[in-house]
Amino acid sequence: MFTAIRIYKTKVERLDEPTLHKIETEFTQILRTVPGFHAYRLIDSGNYSAASISFYETEEGALESIEKTREWVKANLSHLVEGPPTIFTGQQVFSELA
């Protein structure tokens, strides 16, 4: 399992409901087209930053998601983010689920 993490500095303290709805209804559908997609999580810190985590079967899927995310954020959320995100990708080496 491979993971892609993106951390954004935002121009707003918290993401508003219309933005969250757009992410849920439009953006996640794009991620679902990436081969090996497993899950997506969005974390809003409430402190002018947000992070997303997505999980894929392969490294290629994780890398493809980074490119698709970059394009979508540029087209849809560039007015809300401060510069490019910090990106971290890698293979999951341990996981614990309840």
From TrEMBL:
It comes from the Bacteria. This is ABM domain-containing protein. It comes from Candidatus Lucifugimonas marina.
